[in-house]
Amino acid sequence: MNTKIHGEPAVHADRPVSRARLAIGGVLFVGGFLSPLLIPLVTQSDLPANWKAVLSTGLVAGLPEVGMVLAAAVLGKQGFALLKQKLFALLHKHTAPAAVSVGRYRFGLVMFCIPLLAGWLSPYLVRVLPALSLEQGSLMPLILLDLMFASSFLVLGADFWEKIRRLFVYSQPPGSA
Question: What pTM was estimated for this model as a whole?
Fold first, then answer.
């Protein structure tokens, strides 16, 4: 059915989204949400302090939202739904295994504990490992530790997510009234 709305042909909801539009929309969407990772480059630049503040704020508070809106504009309703479906399927693929092998679990625990211990001990470790000092000007070791901590949840699997969730949910012990 080719009906016209205001002299324009109606857009068909069942028309597939082109690969190019999906790629451009995906780059805008993901790039917008990854923009805060550029803040260390801004803070270590030779720009004046007020410019650094404005740019850092824009990278955190403005650019992710603008990227999402632009991606929705490029993709349209059907394409945006397809992009979200693909991204959630990718995320589910990497977090889905409820049961992981013993080796993977131990490796994930090491990845989980090292950043926690480093953060806790960093005031004391600065004398031994000067790279952890913020006065050295490099945030890279801290960023790598944060990435290690975040990726440990993916390595540990969905069972670990449930264990962490239960830490924050109070349940009465059996037999207590």
Answer: 0.50
